[in-house]
């Protein structure tokens, strides 16, 4: 609980058996988390069994692998069903430190921002934490293009460490987003479309064999999807096309609290 508001952490999991418990322990050690939701996207290891043995964890298992975006959709639905006022996504691969949860909850719980990102780029910690240089370069190029298309000034769009207010999640049409990795990008683009301001805080990260990653072909597909999202945002902004992702009813004024 933070400032009288319920904090729920969601973990979209896939083959996270080796790191799930350590991530959970550090999440709960922060002292502000009321509940944890783990959604297992048809893992081939013991992720679901481990999650069910963790105290106070809500577990749902996808019978078939539905994708990272579909996993998040289930996560957010369950978090809202749990009565969450603040929803924080932490990957269970222990790449992002849960020690930032209180700071992220504070930014939302004090009414300062409806969306907070843990940025690997701010502070220059990405490379020090072991991010491969080609991924770092791709991150910087994609972010430059996306900022140009959306008019935002984010340090990155590709972090998996995110916090949302309940009001913002209920306002977004995230159920219609991609079931694949580009879901992350579509979420932030739609947040910007509503006019909401996104906060960023520096987040140290760890890269190691158990940390999740996507292969080269899926990375390319993700990158192209990000650019397509940015182009759709710009076209909708100019009124050139109608967009399900950027509908007029969600369009807001930049900088509004949402």
What does this structure look like?
The protein is of the alpha/beta class and 258 residues long. It has a single domain (7-250), classed as Spore Coat Polysaccharide Biosynthesis Protein SpsA, Chain A (Alpha-Beta Complex), CATH 3.90.550.10. It has helices at residues 20-28, 47-52, 68-81, 101-109, 125-128, 133-150, 166-171, 183-193, 216-237; strands spanning 7-13, 35-40, 57-61, 86-89, 115-119, 162-165, 198-202. Helix 6 runs parallel beside helix 9 (216-237). The longest helix has 22 residues, at 216-237.
Features:
alpha/beta; Spore Coat Polysaccharide Biosynthesis Protein SpsA, Chain A; 7-stranded mixed β-sheet; 9 helices; 14% strand
The radius of gyration is: 17 Å
What would the average pLDDT be, to the nearest integer? 92
Query: Could you say which structural class the secondary elements and strand pairing correspond to?
Result: alpha/beta
Per CATH, the superfamily is Spore Coat Polysaccharide Biosynthesis Protein SpsA, Chain A
> What does the main sheet amount to?
7 strands, mixed
Strand content: 5-15%
Question: Runs with pLDDT <50, length 5+?
Answer: none
Percent range of helical residues: 25-40%
Counting structural domains, the number is 1
Tally of separate helices: 9
What would the principal axes of the Cα set say about the shape?
globular
H/E element sequence: EHEHEHEHEHHEHHEH
Task: Give the CATH class.
Answer: Alpha Beta
CATH hierarchy: architecture: Alpha-Beta Complex
Widest sheet, order of strands: 3-2-1-4-6-5-7
CATH fold annotation: Spore Coat Polysaccharide Biosynthesis Protein SpsA, Chain A
Alpha carbon gap, first and last residue: 22 Å
Care to count the β-strands? 7
């Amino acid at each position: 609980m933070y400032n009288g508001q319920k904090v729920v952490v969601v973990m979209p999991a896939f083959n996270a058996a080796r790191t799930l418990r350590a991530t959970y322990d550090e999440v709960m050690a922060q002292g502000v988390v009321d509940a944890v939701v783990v959604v297992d996207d048809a893992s081939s290891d013991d992720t679901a069994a481990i999650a069910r043995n963790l105290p106070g964890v809500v577990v749902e298992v996808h019978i078939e692998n539905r994708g990272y975006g579909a996993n998040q959709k289930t996560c957010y639905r369950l978090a809202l069903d749990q009565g969450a006022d603040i929803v924080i996504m932490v990957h269970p691969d222990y790449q992002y430190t849960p020690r930032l949860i209180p700071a992220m909850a504070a930014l939302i719980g004090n009414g300062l921002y409806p969306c907070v990102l843990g940025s690997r780029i701010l502070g220059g910690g990405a490379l020090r934490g072991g991010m491969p240089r080609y991924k770092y370069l791709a991150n910087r190029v994609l972010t430059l293009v996306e900022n140009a298309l959306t008019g935002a000034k984010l340090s990155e769009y590709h972090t998996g460490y995110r916090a949302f207010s309940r009001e913002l999640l209920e306002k977004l049409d995230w159920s219609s987003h991609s079931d694949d990795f580009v879901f992350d990008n579509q979420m932030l683009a739609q947040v910007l479309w509503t006019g909401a301001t996104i906060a960023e805080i520096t987040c140290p990260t760890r890269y190691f064999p158990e940390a999740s990653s996507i292969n080269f072909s899926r990375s390319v597909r993700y990158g192209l999807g990000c650019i397509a999202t940015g182009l759709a945002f710009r076209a909708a902004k100019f009124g050139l096309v109608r967009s399900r992702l950027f509908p007029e009813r969600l369009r807001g004024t930049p900088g509004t609290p949402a």
